Amino acid sequence: MSNSDQLTEKVILVTGAGAGIGRALAIEAGRAGASVVVNDLGASLTGEAETSAADEVVSEIEKAGGRAVANGDDVSKPEGAQAMVAQATDAFGRLDAVINNAGILRDGFFHKMTYENFDAVIKVHLYGSFNVSRAAADVFREQYSGSIINMTSTSGLIGNLAQANYSAAKLGVAALSKSMALDLQRWNVRSNCIAPFAWSRMTSSIKVDSPEQEARVAKLREMVPEKIAPLALYLASDAAEDVTGQIFAVRNNEIFLMSQPRPTRSVHAGGEGWDIESVGARAIPALRSHFLPLDVSADVFSWDPV
Q1: Residues 212, 213, 215, 216, Cα dihedral to 10°
Q2: Where are its TM segments located (predicted)?
Q3: pLDDT digits (tens, 9 = 90+) for 258-303
Q4: How far, in Å, CA of 176 to CA of 253, rounded?
Q5: Least buried of 2, 30, 62, 283, by fewest C-beta within 10 Å?
Q6: How far apart (Å, rounded) are the C-alpha atoms in residues 6 and 21?
Q7: Could you give the number of structural domains in the chain?
């Protein structure tokens, strides 16, 4: 089904849109009729400066007949987020959706992870999502409409090796998204998450140090970023006016609704309650059958994508 003109008159800000998933989202948004703010800092995954690809993405959107502007501000800085939102309203008169896609990786096993690498990833993913959404919220509240689409990851929702910083950031994004959905619902503003499976500049840096990881990366290579766009752009559209506070995952042609933490089983102690001995003798044995194993994402998504 064509996405043509599904987002006519909408203005969408896509962060980290110079490559990978963000680039695909920005181009597909343009094809669907939206005016697009293409944000890209112009830096590699490891932080070295490089020529920004935002202008190239803008050019591709314009060649296809769409409207777009390039932005080079930093999502990790509040003033950068404010500037990109201001650019959207200055250029196009409004802002209807933000897609918080910008990200970096600093993978490493926890016992080797530095404060600097932990801090850098949290700043871009979690603080970046907050900064851009917070700046956009003022516009959304005033116009009584808006959609926030946050990119989370099964690395946070489930777990992965050597990604404590990224996992913490992405699970934080899911919690932030739910809080925004709750707090902004009175102004008709929605907030949802997508955990994308796609080969991109970020996933290309995944450590391959086992046959299992090698197989996982091989599967990721087959999943193109454009597969993420239909759900993301649907969530940006008026058709999704009743969808908020949810966590989705997209893997090739599959769309998943992910669970959110809820109690699975309880035990109760009468009288004066629990003590150390009774916890070990009664509580833990009763709960143990519901313990979750130390899964990684590939253990849970163990079948081939369709």
Answers
A1: 120
A2: none
A3: 999 999 999 999 999 999 999 999 999 999 999 999 999 999 998 8
A4: 27
A5: 2
A6: 20
A7: 1
CATH of the domain at 207: 3.40.50.720
- The phi and psi torsions of 302 (rounded to 5 degrees) equal -90, -5
Say if residues 126 and 100 touch (Cβ distance below 8 Å): no
Residues 6 or more apart in contact with residue 263 via CB below 8 angstroms: none
Give the max Cα distance, the chain.
Answer: 74
Which phi and psi angles does 83 have, rounded to 5°? -70, -40
Show the domain range for 230: 11-257
Amino acid residing at 135: A
Is the sign of the CA dihedral 302, 229, 2, 241 positive or negative?
A: positive
116 vs 210: which has the higher pLDDT: 116
- Report if residue 207 sits inside a domain: yes
Tell me if 157 sits within 8 A of 258, measured CB to CB: yes
Residue 234 known to be catalytic: no
**pLDDT digits over 27-51, tens only?**
999 999 999 999 999 865 555 545 4
Would the CA dihedral through 111, 116, 119, 124 be positive or negative? negative
> Does 295 reside within a domain?
no
* Burial class, 134, CB count within 10 angstroms (exposed 0-12 / middle 13-18 / buried 19+): middle
